[in-house]
Amino acid sequence: MIIRRNLIRGIGASLIGLSAHNILKPALAAKSFKIEEENICNNEDFVIHNEPVNDVTEIQMAAVDDVVHMLNVGPNGSRFRYDPMLSVIDVGGKVLWKATTKGHNVEFMVAPDDIKYKSKMHKSAGYTFTTPGIYTYKCTPHVSAGMVGVVVVGNDLSNMEAAMDNSQYYGQAKELIQDILKGLSA
Ligand SMILES: [Cu+2]
User: Fold this and answer.
1) Centre of ligand 1 from the C-alpha of residue 73, in Å
2) How many angstroms separate the alpha carbon of residue 14 from the centre of ligand 1?
C-alpha cells in the first residue's frame, strides 16, 4: 500500500482522480446491483432485453395498456419511484416498465399462483398479465426506499390478504403498498 501511495503521488492530481474512478466505479456498481439472473422469468411475448436506456419507441409505448416509468426521482421528489405506482388492466393486458433512468428493474413480490418475474437491471421490460389478481412488485435494489408498485388485473382482489403483507416489504415498501391497496378496497 505504501509503495502504491508513493506511486500515485508521482502521477499527479488529475490522474489520481481518473485512476480512482476507474478502479472503484465498476466494483461499486457490481456490488450494488447484483441480482440473481437465473431467477429471471422470460416472458418472451414482451420482454425488451439488451437495449440501451430509452430504447422504447413511441409505437411500443402506444401498444401497451400502461407505461410505468422507472425514475431516480419521483413526481413528488422522493428518490426511486415507479410512476404511476398503480396499474389497473384487463386480463391479457400488457404493462411496459420504461427505463427512463438507469439503475432499476422489476421483480414480482406477491402474485396470483405465485407467479415469478424478474427483469434485467437498466432495461425497459414488459409483461403480459394473463392471470387475474393483485401483483405487487419491487425494484430489486430500491425496495426499502419505496420503489414498489401494484398491478391489478381483471378487477380481481381475491388475493388482497396476501398482497397486504409480505416478508419482502422492507422499509417504505410496506406502507406505500398498503396505502395503494386500501385505496382499491375502499
Ligand atoms: Cu430502482
Assistant:
1) 10
2) 32
CATH number of the domain located at residue range(s) 37-185 in this protein:
2.60.40.420
Domain ranges of the chain: 2-32, 37-185
Burial class (CB in 10 A: 0-12, 13-18, 19+), 77: exposed
Collect all residues with Cβ–Cβ distance below 8 Å to 56 and sequence separation of at least 6.
48, 96, 98, 99, 124
If you measure from the C-alpha of residue 184 to the centroid of ligand 1, how many angstroms do you get, rounded to a whole number? 24
Tell whether the torsion through CA atoms of 179, 65, 45 and 119 is positive or negative: negative
User: What phi, psi does 56 have (nearest 5°)?
Assistant: -80, 130
Q: Is the entire prediction scored with pTM above 0.85? A: no
Question: What pLDDT, in 10s, does the model give residues 70-126?
Answer: 998 899 899 999 999 999 999 999 999 999 888 899 999 999 999 999 999 999 999
Q: How far is the CA of 9 from the centre of ligand 1 (A)?
A: 38
Alpha carbon of 102 to ligand 1 centroid (Å): 8
The gap from C-alpha 154 to its chain's centroid, in whole angstroms, comes to 23
Centre of ligand 1 from the C-alpha of residue 7, in Å: 39
